[in-house]
Design a protein that fits this description.
Keywords: Membrane, Transmembrane, Transmembrane helix. The chain is mostly helical and about 325 residues long. About 80% of the residues lie in helices and about 0% in strands. It is built from 10 helices and 2 strands. Strands 1-2 form a two-stranded antiparallel ribbon. α1 crosses α10, α4 packs across α10 and α6 crosses α8.
Length: about 325
């Protein structure tokens, strides 16, 4: 790793300036990012192809079973004639097993993608160069912290979803009038706001987990919330931007499946197209929040008189 210059304070960067700096950092770090991007793109595409071809005959057989036995779900829920539906139950088990395997594989790829992009982008932004050996060393040492953080953020998100269900249930049971409907309307309006904030907190927590030694799980979430003070709106607006980008990619993929093409042709066109765009959007999101983190950390340290924060050196990994 070679240090080319000393990082300067940019804590006054605004929303669009951070976008600009993110483009510059991505361009400057292209030699590192392109191989990572290609690896992730190919990995996700192969997973999608494998999933579709593994599940296509199983799903077809399950649909056939439902057509032949329209009362199958009701019979199974009542524990009636389960031997008759042994084939359908095996199909369901196979679908669940394949989906769990795909989820685990996707999580591993995404985690590696996150650690590699955040680490290399931070070094590039602070005018440093990471070699492949340095990057591999950082990935091997850092992957456990973001995994732990993601687990706790998942639990926190499930808890919030549970609270929403409880709120809806209590309101529906205790009162049925205009005030109750208004209260339910207010709750519904808070859902997208809560979703965006939680997604933002999750993203910042993951960046903290990668870049700061000793910060993982609940500690990383608390650290992220602390750094986001006064910048929540800016960070959340960026998440809104990326959410819109993901929706646009999904909508662009719909026409590709509307033509009367074979499944193989549709997959050959749609999967590379959507995965390529998703990988690009995700890569840029990781870079943007890495730059955000640097600005928040610099500003936070300046206020506390700690000076500038330097990323983990490869020699320390």
């Amino acid at each position: 790793m070679e240090n080319k210059s000393i990082p300067r304070s940019h804590s006054s960067l605004g929303f669009f300036e951070i976008i600009k700096e993110s483009f510059k950092t991505t361009s400057r770090n292209g030699k590192v990012l392109v191989p990572i991007m290609l690896f992730v793109f190919v990995s996700f595409s192969l997973l999608d192809f494998a999933e579709k071809y593994l599940l296509a005959p199983v799903v077809k057989d399950t649909v056939l079973q439902l057509t032949i036995h329209p009362n199958m779900i009701q019979d199974l829920s009542n524990s009636i004639d389960q031997n008759m539906y042994a084939g359908a139950l095996n199909d369901v088990r196979e679908i669940v097993l394949v989906e769990l395997l795909m989820m685990a594989s996707s999580s591993i790829i995404t985690l590696t993608f996150l650690v590699a992009i955040v680490s290399s982008s931070y070094e590039a932004y602070t005018a440093k160069v990471l070699s492949s050996k340095d990057l591999n060393s950082i990935i091997m040492k850092s992957w456990k912290r973001p995994l732990e953080t993601s687990f706790y953020m998942g639990l926190l998100s499930l808890g919030i979803v549970f609270l929403y269900f409880i709120s809806f249930g209590i309101t529906a049971i205790l009162a049925v009038n205009s005030w109750a409907l208004m209260f339910i309307g207010v709750i519904i309006l808070t859902i997208p706001v809560c979703y965006i904030y939680m997604a933002t907190l999750w993203m910042v927590s993951m960046v903290v987990s990668v870049l700061e030694e000793g910060y993982g799980g609940v500690k990383a979430i608390g650290r992220a919330a602390e750094l986001m003070k006064g910048k929540r709106l800016q960070a959340s607006l960026m998440m809104v931007l990326f959410s819109v980008a993901y929706c646009v990619v999904n909508q662009m993929a719909i026409p590709l499946t509307s033509y009367n093409l074979s499944m193989t042709t549709q997959l050959a066109i749609r999967i590379p197209f959507t995965n390529g765009l998703f990988c690009l959007v995700t890569l840029f999101m990781f870079v943007v929040y890495t730059i955000f983190y640097h600005e928040w950390k610099t500003s936070h340290d300046e206020k506390e008189g700690k000076g500038f924060y330097l990323p983990i050196a490869a020699g320390e990994v």
